[in-house]
Amino acid sequence: MITAQRVAVGFSLIAVAKVMSSVAGTSSSEPPGRCPSETRDAQPGSPQRLQRLVAVPGSDPSRVNDLLLLRPTEEPSRCGSDTEPAEDGSSNTHVVFFHGDIQNFHEEMALQPEGVQWLSWSLEQVALTLGRRFPSRHVWVVRASRMYLHKFSCYHNFVESNMFGAPEHSPDFGAFRHLRALLSHGMERAGLPHPLPPPGGADPIPSGFSLILVGFSKGCVVLNQMVYELAGARADPELSPFIDRISDIYWLDGGHPGGSETWVTDKQVLKELASSGVAIHTHVTPYEVCDPMRAWVGRENGRFIKILEELGACPSQKLHFEDEPPSIENHFRVIQEF
């Protein structure tokens, strides 16, 4: 994550900015209801089970995100058939990943000379990495809907944000509702069996559906917003069945350009998370939590863990690469190591 503060103070982040570049731009829409055979390959040479879904609508037509779907190993391809028998086991288990700054589709990153060295962290490569980490699950990578200066990921469909992607959290923005609608529309367009029914409908959550949420760097702002919304969402009869299917949430080296609220530290808000039954995991590196220019990040991470423990939760925590100098490379490597 690149902070706006550093840009403002003598643009001291210029060395980082030179190696952190990606292309923004909203892709053209595709008609709904497409089958996997109608969507183009995620990138040349990518496995057929890796599929890009462009401009998928969320909680309202003005909120759209591109999605990247990696199907589980040996999961058969379907085209929206309602006659196929239900698969048991892992057929309806999913991981959703929210990426950080610079990360984009492979060909977008390759257009930027400074971004070529970071192609190993493109969205396609991250999806494949997560597929190895969660081989029995569908992996969804949610592309940020805006990239300011071709660097700063902005998740303004999930949380109120400034141009650099720094969030303004509130309990009622609608991140859960947007995610649920994205998955419903994405599963339908990809032709997955037993997709989530449209929000607001009478159909229940499909049997066997479960969800893991993973945020990396800037992508953790989406997880934080969901924590702020959790009390209201659990009380909402339309959202609570969806919330109940979330088994784990992973924060991977969270960071954003604001001067606070990198981690949630409001005790009342965290009380809801602690009582939710969701397994909480934090994986950090010195790049974020040991930076003297952003000392609040490490302090807030410590408070996040301590408050949850005081509330009776048992969050797992790990500091990776503790004995190595802070680096962007190790910041990214936490995606492989968690």
TrEMBL record:
What Gene Ontology cellular-component terms does the record carry? mitochondrion
- At the top level, the lineage of the source is Eukaryota
Q: Which InterPro entries match?
A: C2orf69_mit (IPR018881)
Q: Does the keyword Signal apply?
A: yes
Q: Would you indicate the residue range of the signal peptide? A: 1-29
- Region: Disordered; residue ranges are 23-47, 71-91
Q: Name one Pfam family in it.
A: C2orf69
Keyword field: Signal
PANTHER family documented for this protein? MITOCHONDRIAL PROTEIN C2ORF69, UPF0565 PROTEIN C2ORF69
Record-given protein name: Chromosome 2 open reading frame 69
Origin organism is: Myripristis murdjan (pinecone soldierfish)
